[in-house]
Amino acid sequence: MSVVTVQLGQCGNQVGQELFDVISSDTNDAQRYRPSAQGKTYHACSQERFLNEEITGELSARAVLIDMEPKVIAQAMATAAKSGRWKYGDQSFFCQKQGSGNNWANGFCVHGPRHEEAVGDLVRREVERCDRLAGILSLMSVAGGTGSGVGTYVTQCLRDAYPHSFILNQLTWPYGTGEVIVQNYNSVLTLSRLYQCSDAILVHENDAVHRICAQLMNIKHISFSDVNKVIAHQLGSVLQPAHTADTHSQYSRNPMGELLSRLVCHPEYRLLSVCSIPHMSSSSLAYSAFTWPGLLKHLRQMLITSAKMEEGIDWQVRAPPVGQGTAEKLSGFNTSLANLLILRGKDVSSADTCGFLDPALYSPWLPAEGAISTWRSPLPFNKYEKSATLVSNSQSLLKPLDLMVGKAWNMFASRAYVHQYTKFGITEEDFLDSFTCLEQVISSYRHL
Amino acid sequence: MSTPRRNNGEGCDIAGGKIRCLKARAVLIDMEEGVVNEILQGPLRDVLTARSSSRRVGIRQQLGCGTQGVRLGVQGADCGEGTGSGLGSCVLNLLEEEFPDVCRFVTAVYPSAEDDVITSPYNSVLAMRELTEHADCVLPVENQSLVDIVNKIKHMAHTGKPGSVIKKDSTLISGQGGVSKSEKPFDAMNNIVANLLLNLTSSARFEGSLNMDLNEITMNLVPFPRLHYLVSSLTPLYTLADVNVPTRRLDQMFTDAFSKDHQLIRADPKHSLYLACALMVRGNVQVSDLRRNIERLKPSLPFISWNQEGWKTGLCSVPPVGHSHSLLALANNTCVKPTFIDLRERFTRLYRKKAHLHHYLHVEGMEQACFTEALSSLSSLIEEYSQLDATKNLLMPDAPRLNIAT
């Protein structure tokens, strides 16, 4: 089944370009180094999922690029064409001359409705080229104007147009300190709307990814491209073909459906976080060896301390004894609702995941055997001999979300910047509704 | 947006390095012929058409002519003299009516205390009212600061130690490295303002990993509609010829941007309150360099309680000619207040005696009410800044959050 990707705004387009790059290079590696049937089916399955074969034999991404200014799209398309492995469809982009200017209201109330039809047509064309549609993946940031404002509007339209399809939103959260000053307003408005219309919201925090680049990959001058590569790696390892528990030795046909049905078991809890292990620079990759028990032990500790990388995790935090009830939660312990473990690489069938089966990790009202699922693929992903990725619906996003809402609320208390939004038709009432919605989400996760 | 207009798409001949088929998107307005004529016959004659300037005297015709060409929100105005301040603010109103969606940026040149026009306080205060009410963003520039910067660069250029020769084409004040003698007196100062505008629009003109368009500047830096005066600073002022770019010098660029000497108005932002701050970087600078410097500088800069992380950043990959990297810092800072208070003082000194007032009042449509209204507009602006200033150093408690019943 195929996934249609919608890339919105500067961030979404840059992440999307890196994502397709990772996927196409990984798929090619699989075919090159594993000429067996295994590699071939992996290649075929991944290609069906993400790429179109055009009449000329070229591969084009099943993606729609949307931005309100032309520069980023032009660059993404040129970079893709230069790779020689894949490209974007010549017609599958939509851009305007002037950006949304970091103003969510401008994107949501002006640009979104104005270009609804053009964008809808582009997505429909891409959807019609799929034999079977697994779902729609939209990539965007929450800080800027186009990604967040237009992105939210487009997601709402897609929900109306495809009421029975899965829609997964990948959001990039901005740096805590300054990228855009009104980023917290934009985030609050985006998240509260998306919570109503998206099936799940997969979050990457720039701060966390930046730390991975600095400490694990040892990059001295970190550029946005480095940050996007890490995000793309994590996304790719989730979305590339894998065997699920139900499919046994077949590659899963319905990646998004299975992901969502496993992780989003309650409409009140839709925030997903991702962490991967290992991350390292390509130069030291050749000299490293990993064992499955080691990787999984680290990953489990990352989960319960809600750390995003394996360096500097707190080994003191332990799961509380079962049966103590929620009142006695240890501080710093991260309770999960549901987890999805994706293991890729050599000897994957030997990996023992019982550490994640512990009922103490999960909310008491859900049976532990339903809360954890494992996907496996015997092929190494993106040149890592063994790698493990964990998608988790847990309290780990509670703290950053709470911080974000708190800052926005503080700013709202003095009514700073609000006039920029009322100018385009977002009223103070709308702000209050969004705040209420997110406070509700925070409260739900806090009492998990 | 701010790219030059191409007259005819094809057959662009660049003869001898000169651009012939590009036309500037500019409208030149003045009440006397001299300056405009000089520009039209100067080295820029090829990029300007005779149509884009209006030379006849007579305000109404001028305006009719002006609006035909104006599509761009950036304009330069002078706050002290008659044409710049009076006609300039009139054009501003007109632009707001005609193009409400387009950002109106104004670089306003404020006269220094020993200005040669006696009535300049009147003109400035009258213009200030229009700027406060009708512009989206004002970038105030003070003549005295420009003079100081020019002197500093000249000083470096002539007394530099051996080995620290200033690279040609790299100073802010001229294309000749500040050594050419043939320049007119104000060229060097004007060049600084030109560089300000170049850096301001660079992200809209060139690509970069973090774009920052003009409308984003207003969106991020103007928390309250009237408080839109942005203090700007440019660094580096010049590059030395034989030095590469070690990290220390890159960090020095960020430090300089917040020092008193590099501001384009005479003010000290470090000791006033920041409402918001934008860093527009050009050249080979990565996001990690930006983050490191923000972390480093943040403790020494007082930000308003609800905007502790009030940083807006832009990365443009193309540096200005002659530089490897450059930085334009724009700050919405209460340090503009002293400039305004000073201006008000000079205004009231004249106004108390009603000196020179009759020159204004005999112009049709000009009443004394205009003066009092302009003065009260300025006073309330100062008051708004003072109120924000008062919150400095106070520990503001977080606003109580909404409670969710569980």
From TrEMBL, chain A:
Gene3D superfamilies in the cross-refs: Tubulin/FtsZ, GTPase domain
Entry-linked SMART domains: Tubulin (SM00864)
Keywords: Cell projection, Cilium biogenesis/degradation, Cytoplasm, Cytoskeleton, GTP-binding, Microtubule, Nucleotide-binding, Nucleus
A Pfam family of this chain: Tubulin
Transmembrane helix keyword on record: no
GO cellular component, one term: cilium
Listed GO MF terms: GTP binding; structural constituent of cytoskeleton
Subcellular location: Cell projection, Cilium; Cytoplasm, Cytoskeleton, Microtubule organizing center, Centrosome, Centriole; Nucleus
Domain of life: Eukaryota
A single BP term in Gene Ontology: cell projection organization
Domain Tubulin/FtsZ GTPase: 47-246
Family: Belongs to the tubulin family.
Entry function: Acts as a positive regulator of hedgehog signaling and regulates ciliary function.
Protein name in UniProt: Tubulin delta chain
Species of the source: Synaphobranchus kaupii (Kaup's arrowtooth eel)
Species lineage: Eukaryota, Metazoa, Chordata, Craniata, Vertebrata
UniProtKB/TrEMBL annotation, chain B:
Superkingdom field: Eukaryota
Any one of the GO CC terms: microtubule
SUPFAM superfamilies: Tubulin C-terminal domain-like, Tubulin nucleotide-binding domain-like
Gene3D superfamilies documented for this protein: Helix hairpin bin, Tubulin/FtsZ, GTPase domain
Residue ranges occupied by any Tubulin/FtsZ GTPase domain in the UniProt entry: 10-208
Keyword entries, A-Z: Cytoplasm, Cytoskeleton, GTP-binding, Microtubule, Nucleotide-binding
Biological process, per Gene Ontology: microtubule-based process
Leader sequence residues: none
Subcellular localization: Cytoplasm, Cytoskeleton
InterPro entries, alphabetized: Epsilon_tubulin (IPR004057), Tub_FtsZ_C (IPR008280), Tubulin (IPR000217), Tubulin/FtsZ_2-layer-sand-dom (IPR018316), Tubulin/FtsZ_GTPase_sf (IPR036525), Tubulin_C (IPR023123), Tubulin_FtsZ_GTPase (IPR003008)
Ranges of residues in domain Tubulin/FtsZ 2-layer sandwich: 210-345
Keyword Nucleus: no
One MF annotation (Gene Ontology) recorded for this entry: GTP binding
Similarity-based family: Belongs to the tubulin family.
Name this protein carries in UniProt: Tubulin epsilon chain
Lineage of producing organism: Eukaryota, Metazoa, Chordata, Craniata, Vertebrata
